[in-house]
Structures are given as structure tokens and as C-alpha cells.
Design brief:
The complex is a heterodimer of chains A (293) and B (341). Chain A is mainly α and 293 residues long. Chain A has 2 domains: 68 residues, no CATH class; 212 residues, MetI-like (MetI-like fold, Orthogonal Bundle), CATH 1.10.3720. Helices cover 78% and strands 0% of the residues of chain A. Chain A is globular, with a radius of gyration of 24 Å. Chain B is mainly alpha-helical. Helices cover 71% and strands 6% of the residues of chain B. In chain B, the strands form 2 sheets. A two-stranded antiparallel ribbon of chain B has the order 1-4. In chain B, strands 2-3 form a two-stranded antiparallel ribbon. The radius of gyration of chain B is 27 Å and the shape is extended. The two termini of chain B are 13 Å apart. At the A-B interface, helix 1, helix 6, helix 7, helix 8 and helix 9 of A face helix 1, helix 6, helix 7, helix 8 and helix 9 of B.
């Protein structure tokens, strides 16, 4: 490792370190700033007079007595019933991930094992579908959903999100299954298993790393979606992200901007926890498609 | 794998995609050729002591009946595509004749909603994509040359802007550059102009949206390039050193060619994702300054009167745009897979 090619003079090292520190500040500072600010009153979060106010919390002390306040969180979660949206998000995410993975593993496995030409065309169309912005499909959903009274329900949105998610899930699982040696399930079939039994007893036990990674990305899609859920859910069934967007429209009066700030922090927190636990899987998922070309 | 086994295995996925992606495309195309019914107008003659007056009123019942009978609306063919809000064929013709040189024609074009949205979407796509690649590459090179201790935290914090919900990430930045936020104040101080506001200026708004774009997708490019850097051939590297290549030359002639296939991959993914730019415009409340194709569709669909047909026509035009943009990827995939299948 200590060959001349990898040795670096101090000047290069310094330059690289400085550059990285700047990038790290750019990446992390906005989140820390918003987390800190969410515990203040609006006058401090947006302070016209002196930006140091947001650090010292001058107005927060004047208005509430302490240097930190949970008013924003109280207002968002209790007063504006953000907990209801959080509950809806949990339901949507659990179902989207489970259904996506169930259909995706079956489909991805078949696509990885079939050598026929139609498997290629299947993936080809999935790629086209993956490229389409989801919002372009929404105007196609609305009229039928209104006519058949399907609009506004959580279950409709779940199915739509699963379908939009399917092309990506198929591609990802397809490449994971390609890496599992074909001899494994073929030897099981020589021993008398049917194709499905081979899948159940031989492939399922070894597929979990790939499935977990794909599941993380399905979760992100369902959790982060705004375009589809904002258009397809009725007001009482809203998930967190559309609810947050509706805060922006209705609560621009004084003080209530802090509800939105608190909601933003609440939406970010689970994602932060997810990176803590699954950093390795996320990175492997991002590079899976790329490194193999 | 046998045909029947394949069929049963892919059936759930195939049905889902057929019902909720393929059919809606058909439905969007159909919808874009129908316009909402015109209201049924009846003329009522009301006679009073000072003579009779004729007045017109909307016959709500008849309108509703028409609506129920044909929920799609009335067939208008390509009329919606050529109206002012979409391709605006007539307006362009007039502008071309009346325009005083090309710049003037350009200004007239930018006043038409569809071309305005198309211009922003294309500008965003083709400015953000290369910048993302450059930023990601620089971060990857930097991480690769510093001590191991910094690598873990860098990857951890770099993932944040990418993973976080786009709407939320954009909001966080937007609040900071607000005239009363910390970055907004810093900008005012730097420019020495206390009235400077990103919200009020079109150019600043475009720059801010693009900064958000690079900020949120550079981590993806970084992670991919960083993985690629681990597989650079060390023998080639040493040979380059022996041949007297400088640090820059080594990056130019060894590292970059090695990463080229990854760059195409990142570029294609980024082109697809940037073309659908939407959430930052909602978060930045930038609709007065920047309008993207996705936002135009969203704008038509929201509110009390959902302009389904107009949204559908924009959707179809967007899908065509994606298809043009994507054709290189499709050709590449076709070539990659064809010999093996």
C-alpha cells in the first residue's frame, strides 16, 4: 500500500482535507441548523435584526422563558394532528415495501433465470417505465379513480406506489439474483424439486442481503413521494410529506411557520436513523447497478 | 426456465405494471384529446312591467347530465396541443412574423407557459447534470486521498442530502436563504445590498434551484465514483509514476478513463431524474420565476377546477421529451443485452 503511487505530499493532503471539510459543512450544516432552529420561536429562526439571535435565542427567552421551546412540535403534532399523517405514512410504507418485495422477488428471480428473448423485452419496458416522471401518470389515474370511487383511499395510493416502484425493484433484484449461482437451484431441481420449491427452499434463504437493500430503496420511494400521494389522497388520509406541504400554504401566519419547521425535522429524523443503521446497504445498492455497468 | 413457470413468476409484477403504468398512459393520451364540456346555456325571457328582457343563464342540470353521460368530455382532437398553454402554434406564428430579430422572438417564446417550462427544465437538466458529476468526482478524489479516519463520517454525512425527502431538503435550504435566514443575511452582507432577496429575483431563483439540484445529487455521483476508484489498477498507476506522470496527468490519463463507463451511467440516471424536477419548485415557492414541465402538470391538477385535459396534454409532451432524452440509454441497453439473449 505504501507504494510511491499512493504516497501523497502534505500540500495535496491539506487541499483534499480542506475541500472535504467544506463539503461536509455544506452537507451537514443545514440539517443541524434547522434542528437547532426548530427549538426556537419564529423571531429567532428568521431573525431580521441580528442573525446571532438564532444562536442565543434572545426572543425565545423573552417569549417562553427558556432558551429552548417545544412549541413548534406541540403545534404540529397535537394541534395540527401531524401524528395522523405519521400513522398514514407508517401504513403506506409497510404495505408498499412488503408488496413490492413480494412481487419483485418473484419477478426478478424469473427474469434472472429465463434465457428467452421476452425476458429482455420485459426488462426493456420496465426501464422505459422507470424513466417516466410519476406525475405524468397522475392525470391518467384521476378520472377513472373518481368514476369508480377509488380516489382518496390509502389502499389505492399503496397499489399505485407499488406499481410505480416495480420497474426499479425488478431491475435491482434481477441483478442480485444474477449473482446467485444458477447451479444452486438447478441441483435442487435435479433432486426433484419443482421450480417453486427450489425458489422457496434454496433461493429464499440466501437472497436476504439483496432483498434488504432493495427494500430500503422501496421504502425511500414510498416515504419521499410527494407528487402521487399529494394528488391521490384525500385530506384526512394525507401522509407526512403532502401534509407538510399543506402546512406551507395555510400556516404562513406568525408563529405557525415553526409548525412546518418542526414537521421538517420530524420527517428527517427517521431517515437519519436509517442511514445510521443501513449505511453499508445503501452504499452497496447505489453502486450495484453502476460498477457492473 | 420453462415458459409456464416464468409466466406465473412474473404475473404479479406484470399485472401491476400493466394496470397502473401502461393503461394510465393510454388513458392520459385519450384524455388529452377531450376537452371539458361547454356549459349548457339557456336564454330566458323575463317580462316585467317595463317590457321584456332576454337574459342567459347556465343550465346546471343539463350541464351535469352531459357530464355524467360523457365523463371524458367532448372530443377535440389535437386542439388542446395547439392551444396557447401547450404548443401554441398560432402564437408562435404571429410572434415569428412580428418579432424584431431573434432575441425578441425568444422573449415572446418565453411568455408562452409551455416553452417557459421547457426552457427551465432543459436548462436545469443540462446544467445540473455536469455539475453534479464534477462535484461528485472531486469529492471522491478528495476522500480517496485523505486519511482513513475521515472516510466514514464523509460517507455518512454525504448521504444525508441525497436520502432526505426532496421537498424537505429543498425547504431546509429555502429557509436558510430566506431574506431573514442565515444564508440570506450573509448574501445581503456580501452583496452589500440589504434589500437583496432570492425570492424576488428570477436569476437568483434559478441559481438557487440549481444549487439545490447539485447539493442533493452530488452524493450519488460521489458514492458511485468512490466505489470505482477502489478498482483502479495499481500497476498502471505505478507505471505512470515511473514514466514521470505528474499527479494531474495520472488523474487525467489513468483515473478518468477508468471511470468513464461509470460517468455515462451517472449521467444517464441524472438526466432522467433532473428532467422531472418538481419538488424544489414547490418548496421554494418559485412558480413565479421558474416553471418546470412536472410543475405545470401539478399546477393544472391541483385546486378546485382540475384541468385534466390540459394536464394530460402536458403529460404526453413530457413523456415524448423523456423518450427523446432516453433514446441513448435504450440503445445502449439494447446493445448490452442483445448478444446474450
Amino acid at each position: 500500500m505504501s507504494s510511491k503511487a499512493t504516497a501523497r505530499p502534505p500540500s495535496v493532503l491539506l487541499l483534499a482535507t480542506v475541500f472535504l471539510v467544506i463539503w461536509l459543512i455544506m452537507a451537514a450544516f443545514p440539517f443541524l441548523w434547522t434542528l437547532w432552529g426548530s427549538l426556537k420561536v419564529e423571531g429567532d429562526f428568521f431573525s431580521k435584526a441580528d442573525w446571532m439571535n438564532s444562536l442565543r435565542g434572545t426572543l425565545t427567552i423573552v417569549e417562553t422563558g427558556g432558551s429552548f421551546t417545544g412549541d413548534g412540535y406541540y403545534g404540529a403534532w397535537v394541534q395540527e394532528e401531524f401524528w395522523r399523517a405519521a400513522l398514514n405514512t407508517i401504513i403506506v410504507c409497510i404495505f408498499v415495501v412488503t408488496i413490492s418485495l413480494t412481487c419483485g422477488t418473484l419477478g426478478g428471480y424469473a427474469l434472472a433465470r429465463s434465457g428467452f428473448r421476452y425476458a429482455f423485452w420485459f426488462l426493456f419496458f420496465a426501464l422505459i417505465f422507470r424513466a417516466m416522471p410519476p406525475i405524468t401518470l397522475v392525470s391518467g389515474y384521476l378520472l377513472p379513480f373518481f368514476e369508480w370511487n377509488l380516489w382518496g383511499h390509502l389502499s389505492t395510493t399503496i397499489i399505485v406506489l407499488v406499481a410505480i416502484n416495480q420497474p426499479f425493484t425488478l431491475w435491482m433484484l434481477h441483478s442480485f439474483f444474477k449473482n446467485i449461482p444458477q447451479d444452486l437451484d438447478e441441483s435442487a431441481m435435479v433432486d426433484g424439486c419443482t421450480r417453486f420449491q427450489a425458489f422457496r427452499h434454496v433461493i429464499i434463504p440466501v437472497m436476504w442481503p439483496g432483498v434488504i437493500t432493495t427494500g430500503l430503496f422501496s421504502f425511500l420511494l414510498a416515504y419521499n413521494d410527494f407528487a402521487v400521494s399529494a394528488m391521490l389522497l384525500s385530506k384526512e388520509n394525507q401522509t407526512m410529506v403532502p401534509k407538510l406541504a399543506s402546512f406551507l400554504g395555510t400556516t404562513q401566519t406568525k408563529g405557525n411557520v415553526m409548525f412546518a419547521v418542526a414537521a421538517v425535522v420530524s420527517v428527517t429524523a427517521p431517515l437519519f436513523v436509517m442511514i445510521v443503521f443501513f449505511q453499508r446497504q445503501i452504499v452497496s445498492g447505489l453502486t450495484a447497478g453502476a460498477v457492473k455497468g | 426456465m420453462k415458459h409456464s413457470a416464468f409466466f406465473w413468476f412474473v404475473l404479479p409484477s406484470a399485472v401491476l405494471m400493466l394496470l397502473f403504468i401502461a393503461l394510465p398512459i393510454v388513458s392520459v393520451v385519450t384524455q388529452s384529446m377531450y376537452a371539458a364540456h361547454e356549459q349548457v346555456v339557456v336564454t330566458v325571457e323575463s317580462c316585467g312591467p317595463f317590457g321584456c328582457t332576454e337574459s342567459t343563464a347556465v343550465d346546471q342540470e343539463a350541464t351535469q347530465a352531459l357530464q355524467d353521460e360523457e365523463p371524458l368530455g367532448r372530443f377535440v382532437g389535437s386542439e388542446i396541443y395547439t392551444d396557447r398553454n401547450h404548443l401554441a402554434v398560432g402564437e408562435i406564428g404571429t410572434a415569428w412574423v412580428n418579432a424584431d430579430g431573434l432575441p425578441d422572438f425568444g422573449r415572446a417564446l418565453m411568455n408562452l407557459p409551455f416553452y417557459n417550462a421547457l426552457a427551465f427544465t432543459l436548462a436545469y437538466t443540462f446544467i445540473v447534470t455536469p455539475l453534479t458529476i464534477i462535484a461528485g468526482f472531486l469529492i471522491a478524489i478528495a476522500v480517496n486521498s485523505v486519511a482513513k479516519a475521515l472516510k466514514g463520517p464523509t460517507i455518512f454525512f454525504s448521504l444525508l442530502p441525497m436520502i432526505v425527502t426532496p421537498l424537505v431538503g429543498a425547504l431546509i435550504l429555502f429557509w436558510m436563504v430566506d431574506a431573514r435566514g442565515v444564508l440570506g443575511t450573509a448574501l445581503q452582507w456580501l452583496a452589500d445590498d440589504p434589500s437583496l432577496s432570492v425570492k424576488a429575483d428570477t436569476t437568483l431563483m434559478w441559481i438557487m434551484l440549481m444549487v439545490y439540484g447539485v447539493w442533493s445529487s452530488a452524493p450519488f455521483a460521489f458514492v458511485v465514483f468512490y466505489a470505482g476508484l477502489q478498482t483502479v489498477n495499481q500497476d498502471t498507476m505505478e507505471a505512470a509514476v515511473i514514466d514521470g506522470a505528474s499527479r494531474v496527468e495520472r488523474i487525467r490519463y489513468v483515473v478518468i478513463p477508468h471511470l468513464m463507463p461509470l460517468t455515462t451511467f451517472v449521467a444517464l440516471i441524472q438526466l432522467m431524474d433532473n428532467f422531472r424536477v418538481f419538488e424544489p419548485i414547490v418548496s421554494f415557492q418559485a412558480q413565479a420565476h421558474a416553471f418546470s414541465l412536472s410543475y405545470a402538470i401539478f399546477n393544472d391538477l391541483q385546486g378546485e377546477t382540475r384541468l385534466l385535459s390540459s394536464a394530460a396534454a402536458t403529460s404526453v409532451l413530457t413523456i415524448i421529451g423523456v423518450a427523446i432524452l432516453l433514446s441513448p440509454v435504450l440503445v445502449r441497453t439494447y446493445r448490452d443485452f442483445s448478444p446474450r439473449t
